[in-house]
Amino acid sequence: MSTSAENLRDLHALHQRSKSLRDRLASGPKTLSARQAFLTKKRADLDATKEALKKLRVEIKNKENQVQSQRDRADDLRTKLNSVKKQAEYDAIRNEIAHTNQNASKLEDDVLELMQKVEGQETEIKAFEADTTKLAQEVEALAKDIADRASAAVTQLAELDSAIAQAEEIIPENQREQYVRNIKGRADDAMAQVDDGACHGCFVAVTPQMVNELINGNHLVFCKTCGRILYLAEQPVQNLRKVANRA
Ligand SMILES: [Zn+2]
Questions:
Q1: CA 24 – ligand 1 centroid, Å
Q2: What is the whole-number distance in angstroms between the Cα of residue 150 and the centre of ligand 1?
Q3: How far is the CA of 205 from the centre of ligand 1 (A)?
């Protein structure tokens, strides 16, 4: 076992897979709770619309009662008209009947208008309910999907963890603590390849001596600028030796 470029590359690839799996695991519940919040809001809106419809129906009932009482009043007045003797009183009652009928007509217009509103709201609520039901089904499917994926990811993570543990056997004992600290802190970002003579974590050039150490693969080499654990990019070692020798 050595800290060869190939071994370190494999180790880094495992850390990258582990990180992306963990990210996906973490993002699932966030996505779900956002959709659930949206559904809750939609349901609250639907309830509010239903409540408004109820109020509208009460308002119609009230207006209808008012129409009836105006019509009753007009009937009473017409009866009264039969027993009236004086012209002035007769005219006054006639006026009042006309006025009462006017009120009733106005109220009837209001009722008609409100009924049209109710019809519109009923259609709206139907569509709203269909939407909400569809959304609820989507959220339920999403929850199931996320749960399924999470349990698959947990299995995959366990497999990855054991593969990582195995791949980590190449880490020299005296560098293990430093390695663990780095991985803990930065996950897969704790490692970077060296390509074209530079660390690909921070893009600062590495020294020829570091390149030689990387080629020899006897221990971990850390970037002097960003502290990442370095490994050589996939390219012929011969060329690298030339680069190292030239400097
Ligand atoms: Zn660096």
A1: 27
A2: 34
A3: 8
Residue 247: predicted pLDDT? 47
Which residues of the chain register pLDDT less than 50? 247
CA of 200 to the centre of ligand 1 (A): 6
Q: What is the DSSP string of 24-91?
A: HHHHHHHHHHHHHHHHHHHHHHHHHHHHHHHHHHHHHHHHHHHHHHHHHHHHHHHHHHHH---HHHHH
Q: How far is 194 from 85, CA to CA, in rounded Å?
A: 116
21-168 has CATH 3.40.50.2000 classification:
no
Note if the pTM is more than 0.85: no
- In this predicted model, what pLDDT tens digit does every residue of 141-171 receive, in sequence order? 999 999 999 999 999 999 999 999 999 999 9
Give residue limits of the domains in the chain: 21-168, 173-246
- Compute the residue count for the chain: 247
Q: How far apart are CA 60 and CA 45, in angstroms?
A: 23
HEC string for 194-222:
EECCEECCCCCECCHHHHHHHHHCCCCEE
99-134 per-position pLDDT tens digit? 999 999 999 999 999 999 999 999 999 999 999 999
Kindly give the distance from the C-alpha atom of residue 169 to the centroid of ligand 1, in angstroms, as a whole number.
24
Could you tell me the distance, in angstroms and rounded to a whole number, from the CA of residue 101 to the centre of ligand 1? 91
CA of 160 relative to ligand 1 center, distance in Å: 26
Q: What is the distance between the alpha carbons of residues 35 and 134, in angstroms, rounded to a whole number?
A: 12
Pairing of strands 229-232, 191-195: parallel
Taking the centre of ligand 1 as the mean of its atom positions, its distance from the CA of residue 238, in whole angstroms, is 23
pLDDT given at position 53: 97
